[in-house]
What we know:
By secondary structure, the protein is of the alpha/beta class.
Amino acid sequence: MAIEVQPSLSPHLVVDDAAAAIDFYVKAFGATELGRVPHPDGRLVHAALNLNGSTVMLNDDFPDFNEGKSSTPKALGGTPVTIHLQVPDVESAFQRALDAGAVVVAPLEDQFWGDRYGMVRDPFGHQWSLGQPVREVSPEEIAAAMSQ
């Protein structure tokens, strides 16, 4: 019998302390833990969360499985990736993330594309943007705002 696969796209985050990251994502973003697989040494080989209706996977850093190199944002000096959360109440969601230990990268502001939008960095070095649509904006208005 074949297993039916539902197409999806899920971020897979590498962190220094996956157990602490799970706790943070639950507190900061309201994630629900789906499960975890521990390595015999206690690090997590795999964990999965449901966050905002999507799956986010994560694991502890295992340089021994990556040519001896760490692949956390902190070890790499930052991250080129921003994970975006579209939420119904961005003010509350942004404050909840800050209260849990995130730091502001870009403050919440109304943006020319129609969202109230801001960015935070979590304690593990991953960057998150949070947005809430607040007004309809036409493609022409966006183009005009971009050219200023």
